[in-house]
């Protein structure tokens, strides 16, 4: 059974008022994941450009005038670039409506209460949510809190700052992952959250 993985969490200061995510964010996140999977060396070039905006452990990239504090600074970015330079291009991930519904359930339950993590208030984990939708337990899940654009969401997952083992990156680049459902929505604390549930099959079955 595939394990679900730790959440990815930005270190930006939480905002008290949630904001609606931009239209098409979910489709854009999946498209960005697929660009990163199918063109890893091109994605490495994007990270090289991103690296230029660091001053110490704070990155001041365009569109983020307040800056984003990281735990590792450029060290995590450099490690991600090395990984991408060695990474073989993979097949794109196809959208899976059932997995998207399970991801949406987590956004709707967690966002209004400002929760974080893979567990719902009732103790349900990603496998439980997919199974409640009629699927199977063979799924992995990644989450971001805060990033408002697809590029920022996927970049956070790939750089994986302060995440031991770079589990989110490994999930996105797992060749057996062929399907995903993405859901994004307002979060009472980090403004926006995005959940991606991934599986070998579109319904999480073995």
UniProtKB/TrEMBL annotation:
InterPro entries: CAP_dom, CAP_sf. Gene3D superfamilies: CAP (3.40.33.10). Residues 82-194 form the SCP domain. CDD domains: CAP_bacterial (cd05379). Residues 105-134 are annotated as: Disordered. It comes from the Bacteria. This is Uncharacterized protein YkwD. It comes from Sphingomonas kyeonggiensis. The lineage of its organism: Bacteria, Pseudomonadati, Pseudomonadota, Alphaproteobacteria, Sphingomonadales.
């Amino acid at each position: 059974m595939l394990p679900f993985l730790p959440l990815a969490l930005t270190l930006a200061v939480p905002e008290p008022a949630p904001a609606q995510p931009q239209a098409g964010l979910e489709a854009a996140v999946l498209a960005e994941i697929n660009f990163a999977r199918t063109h890893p060396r091109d994605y490495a070039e994007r990270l090289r450009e991103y690296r230029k905006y660091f001053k110490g452990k704070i990155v001041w990239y365009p569109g983020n005038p307040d800056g984003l504090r990281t735990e590792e600074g450029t060290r995590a970015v450099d490690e991600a670039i090395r990984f991408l330079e060695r990474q073989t291009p993979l097949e794109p991930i196809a959208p899976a409506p059932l997995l998207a519904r399970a991801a949406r359930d987590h956004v709707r339950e967690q966002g209004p209460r400002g929760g974080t993590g893979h567990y719902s208030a009732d103790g349900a984990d990603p496998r439980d949510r997919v199974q409640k939708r009629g699927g199977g337990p063979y799924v992995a899940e990644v989450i971001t809190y805060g990033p408002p654009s697809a590029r920022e969401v996927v970049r956070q997952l790939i750089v994986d700052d302060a995440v031991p083992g770079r589990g989110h990156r490994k999930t996105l680049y797992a060749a057996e992952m062929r399907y995903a459902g993405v859901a994004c929505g307002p979060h009472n604390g980090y403004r926006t959250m995005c959940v991606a549930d991934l599986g070998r099959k579109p319904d999480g079955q073995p």
